[in-house]
Write a structure and sequence with these properties.
Elements lengths: L19 H12 L4 H11 L6 E5 L5 H8 L3 E6 L2 H11 L15 E4 L13 E10 L7 H10 L3 E12 L8 H12 L16 H8 L3 E9 L2 E3 L2 H9 L5 H6 L2 H12 L9 E3 L2 E8 L1
Amino acid sequence: MTPTLVRHHSHAETSTQMDSGDRARDWAEIQERMLAPLYEAVYERLEVGSGTRLLSLGCGSGLALLIAAARGARVTGVDTDLERLALARTRLLPDPDSAAGPPAGHPRLLEGDPSGARPSDGMAYNLITAFTPIGCSSDDGEGLVAELRSAVPLAARGSTVVLTGWGPPERCATAPVLRVAGRLCDRDRAPRDGGWRPSGRDDLEELAFRAGLNPDGSGRVACPFGYADPASAVRGLLSTRLFDAAVRATDRTQVEKEVAQALRPHHRRDGTVWMPNVFRYLVCTT
């Protein structure tokens, strides 16, 4: 099993009590690396390097920024999750507690709307990424359209924008597990599709057009989800925020129980959990 995808965690036991800081750490330590092949494939295709000025929307705890910075890119990340941003600062900034802020050229990490991420040196971005995949619900692209409309004016004309989404359910072993969230939210209402809305072939293109972007190529990347044990798998998946509504509709114990049950077909004899998935990315221009 790929070492970068499966690690043991000292706090891997599930719990009925978890604050947002615990969830952010689970994202950074367990789940975020599952999308590393997607980041790498996009950066390789676009030849990200010293000439890249990157703005990352929903940068999370900063792994994609870290990979881009290692390739020589100048990076800025924005997110609304304070706990994830705090972890990103620890990863990326030489002195995250310095009142003076990072020196010129170092990564910038900002809270809130992308419109506040105007480059400090006046040089426009030439790459914008949105690495949070859409395709789990009928409206999960709505907020992204608004973010893109705020971010695109900060980029030079003809810059590249990358959008990402889940692949078709038949190529994503995690799809039945994600359906648990919708089923728990809808259990007191008429049955629907379990909350999973299969990704359409043109979903990313439609989102791009709504944001005023021009599609210019796409690709698919295998991103298997691998976990050291079932408990780590539950914690990692719940850290994605895709189960938040289910937790509010029921309780965390119930969600953990049903997610653990849905994961059983993916247990391996050595105790690990393995789920092959495919993600799609769309390359656009401004």
